[in-house]
Design a protein that fits this description.
- The complex is a heterodimer.
- Chain A is built from eleven helices and ten strands.
- By secondary structure, chain A is α/β, with parallel strands linked by helices.
- Chain A has a six-stranded mixed sheet, with helices on both faces. In chain A, strands 2-1-4-5 form a four-stranded antiparallel sheet, with helices on one face.
- Chain A starts with 7 loop residues before the first strand and ends with a helix.
- Chain B is mostly helical.
- Chain B has a domain of about 240 residues.
- Classes of the chains: A alpha/beta, B mainly alpha.
- Chains A and B meet through helix 2, helix 3, helix 4 and helix 5 of A and helix 9, helix 10, helix 11 and helix 12 of B.
Chain lengths: ~270, ~375
Amino acid sequence: MSTTAPDHVLRVSGVNKRFGGLQALADVGIEITRGEIYGLIGPNGAGKTTFFNVITGLYTPDSGSFELDGKPYSPHDVHRVAQAGIARTFQNIRLFPDMTALENVMVGRHVRTKATALGAILRTRRTLDEERAIKSRSLELLEYVGIRKYADYQARTLAYGDQRRLEIARALATEPKLLALDEPAAGMNATEKVALRTLLEAISRDGITILLIEHDVKLVMGLCDRVTVLDYGKMIAAGAPAQVQSNPAVIEAYLGAGHKAVATKVA
Amino acid sequence: MKTLLPRLSQNRAAVWLGVVLIAIVLVALPFVIGQMGNAWVRALAFACLYVMLALGLNIVVGFAGLLDLGYIAFYAVGAYMYALLASPHLTSTFPWIAQMFPEGLHSSIWLVIPLGAGIAAIFGLLLGAPVLKLRGDYLAIVTLGFGEIVRIFLNNLNAPVNITNGPQGITLIEPIRMLGVNLGRAQEIFGLRLPSVYLYYYLFLALTIIAIIICVRLQDSRLGRAWMAIREDEIAAKAMGINVRNVKLLAFALGATFGGVSGAMFAAFQGFVSPESFILNESIIVLAMVVLGGLGHIPGVVLGAVLLAIFPEILRHTVVPVQNALFGQVIIDAEILRMMLYGMALVLIMLYRPKGLWPAPEHGVNPASRVGVAAAGRA
């Protein structure tokens, strides 16, 4: 808001998380600059989703320091993290399946609105005005992600790609400082992926910082300004996509140490 | 039906006509049914109390998705609150209270309703706070225990200090007086004689209508959406910034208020309360009303409550005469038959209408069902 806003939207460092004997995250940290699309990649089981769940409050970290928009935040309460300004989507879509698409987005407005039970019972003017504002803003967001025509459809009846879009619209409804997407392209076909990429670019252009966890290396490399690579809970590389792509440690993590030998043999 | 309803609701005049017709029916009802005896009007008044209970439980179970098997505890709290504030029990037991109120304890309805709602809400919070992290079966067991704890307390709080008069219950509870009218006595209005039960029926009807309006407004609000969201997916609701703890507590507290008010009215209507009125079976009957009518759907819940409240009265008046006429003697007791029919009704409902007699209409558009129809049409 002010001109002195810090460059870093999210600054997280020294995150450790242990599940019994498994060190899921070892001294992981990222800094996300305002307005960029930041990628977090790594092979299966690298700790991407664990890290994601830690910064959004779903898992309690063993240690780590957390700062959002220059202010420290405590990732112990999921709803507080959302209030602070991180909105997330889920790897296996978690919409409110029996509510309409519009109502799903309206739930996203909850955190930025105030109407009380008493206001609702008495139907005060303020409550009615707020309710109207919630609805019109939610319709705008549905329009923005391109599923305005399905506003009155039950969420569970939407096509897979549209459910992803709805989840993004619901997250945007919370007016996030950081939009965190957990494998948004998972299970999408090529056309849907292209459409998703266009949407994410548009969101980014409109000034929202994005953290993206993704399996699809092609999507990440094309879309992200910077990436961090995790493997076995450790950061093995960070930087611009092209730089990271040619990093031997990354190639090893993805393809295994012997890949060169195999490749030459086949050739 | 489906095409008729939206057209009706677009036509404001038709809606108002419907409202007026329903109002006339509800006002005239006791005079029609009263021809068969005041017991029927009494049953109607009780049906109103049960509708309030069912609507309150529906907030917890239907809206927020939290199973509560101890709901009758709030009814008990409301009833005992009124009983203590409007009977000679406290003044005759505690001399210092008698000194404070030399005229005896009398409580205005304008005090009793907010107080009943408030105290029940506090009990709602007391129940809600420890069960926040429980779901499903575990929640059911703890709430069931809560209901029993309240009943057992009422049963045993006659020693060392006699507060509730134990299993004997509290008698001589005053009827409600409002606007200078004593609801305990028959009144003459425009030459019409209105017996006490009629007056209570009208009072309870008015409260029930207020309860319905409150429920409808809550359901369509920001809070109603938050309840629905935590019912559907608690983690996603949290991730959207909903303070699940507060929203759940609010469901418990608001749901309890209906029970508290209804309980206070019950005490005034009966003139007598004892712990026996608040057994587990009552909680289960109220839950059955909600589930049988249509979980989460206000018209369905009202229907379920009215049916289950009136049904025993019908049996009471038919079972004995019918058996006498058929066999010349009574073979099955009305009470036994009632339980059997209850059981059968629940089984049949679960088999043929698992979402209740009048379930919530499918929310929003479901293209799958339309595609199905279209495909069937083509074939």
